[in-house]
Structure formats: C-alpha cells, structure tokens
C-alpha cells in the first residue's frame, strides 16, 4: 500500500499557518483543530517549515511564556522532510521512526497535497496485516 490510499481515506485537508503567526495562535490552532502539527507556508504557499506540539513545548521550556508573542518561524523545523503519494506505508513508517517525528507532509509536483501522521500510518499498516492474515486463513481453509 502507498500513501495515496491514506490520503484517499482521510482527505487532502492540511491546517497551515504563515511564518509570522504568533506562537500563541499556533497553540490555539493546534488545540481548536485537535492536531499535533501545522505546516508553515511562505507567501508563495510553499512549505517553509512545520511546527509541532513538541516544538511549542521546547520553546516554552527555553523561553517561558514570553515566547508566545514570537512568530512561528522562530521555533519551526525548517528542513522539512516530505513524502509523496507513491511512497509506501512501510517507507514512510521507517522515515518517521528514524527521524523521530509524527507528522509528514505529502507533496505532489512540488505542492502540498496532504499530511499523514504516525497514527494514520500505523492504522493503515494494521489494516494491511489484518487483510493479509484473512487471505492466509481463506487460503488454508480452501487448501
């Protein structure tokens, strides 16, 4: 299975913000949308970073409540690793595990096309394993 199957199920909607959005508003958006990360976009709409709950916690730990007035650009991850819809679930799971992050933007032809979380990837992998097990049980039953 590939990432396209996850995107088909969950949709292409991605909550984004601009680099100048104050960290307090990042926190508000994360909370209101019940998500763990925002993709940060520049004026041209291109991905310029990603900011997660973990980034916010690190910022608060290092700078206290004063950081809440600072822009997202000050705390976002700038070197964003992305995937494509053609990548397999196993490939994406490996990348997420190696780099220790939980959200991966999906890019198609250089444009943001969706986002997958580790929860999405694990859910898909479990569904694949269950399907394989069922196929094996059916094969054994008819043999």
Notes on the structure:
With about 140 residues, this protein is α+β, with helices and mostly antiparallel strands. The protein has one domain: CBS-domain. The protein has five helices and five strands. The protein has helices spanning about 5-10, 25-30, 55-65, 90-100, 120-140; strands spanning about 15-20, 35-40, 45-50, 105-110, 110-115. A three-stranded mixed beta sheet has the order 1-2-3. A two-stranded antiparallel sheet has the order 4-5. β4 (about 105-110) and β5 (about 110-115) form a beta hairpin. α4 (about 90-100) crosses α5. The two termini are about 25 Å apart. The model has no long low-confidence stretch (mean pLDDT about 95).
Q: How many structural units, i.e. domains?
A: 1
SS-derived structural category: alpha+beta
- The number of helical segments is 5
The CATH topology comes to CBS-domain
- Give the amount of beta strand, in percent: 15-25%
- Intertermini distance: 27 Å
Task: Kindly report the average pLDDT value.
Answer: 93
Task: State the gist of this model.
This protein is of the alpha+beta class and 143 residues long. The chain has helices spanning 3-10, 23-32, 53-63, 89-99, 118-142, and strands at residues 16-18, 37-41, 47-52, 103-108, 111-117.
Produce the secondary structure layout.
Elements: H1 3-10, E1 16-18, H2 23-32, E2 37-41, E3 47-52, H3 53-63, H4 89-99, E4 103-108, E5 111-117, H5 118-142
Parallel strand pairs: 1-2
Antiparallel strand pairs: 2-3, 4-5
Features:
single chain; 143 residues; alpha+beta; CBS-domain; two-stranded antiparallel sheet; 5 helices; 45% helix; 19% strand
